What we know:
The chain has 153 residues and is mainly α.
Amino acid sequence: MDKYIFTVCLILCSFAVSAQDQKTLIANGDKLYSKKDYKNALTAYLAAQEINPDDAYLNFKIGLTYLYSETKSKAATYIDKAYRLNPAVNPDIDYHLGIAFQNTNSFKLAIEHFERFKKKNNKLASIADEKIAECQVADSLSQNELNVIIENL
Length: 153
């Protein structure tokens, strides 16, 4: 019986330590993010995600960090996951998801999210309209393949 109680206490303590470790990692990531140290913020956020990969807010933070990093193409995966886990995780998630999809050349998905953003934020409709226009132009241009030869002079 004592072994059973000890085992249960040990398991509960490990969960408490993991939760605290995740909070610490996220707090460290937030400090680095606020200093625009996106590379190290991303390292902290990804370590926190290993503890709880289904945390919508953390996935959103990782996606935003990727949007400001050199590897913008990875942002869509995390912001989309955050959206699927909790569409209300951030009031502007549709805008950020639109940007992320635009960066991965998924223009139709980007337009869908910019449209949703526009419906929720009438005051920012002009920004959404500009992004929608960008996506429409980019989509039409990507449909027409050009054969180009580049030569050094």
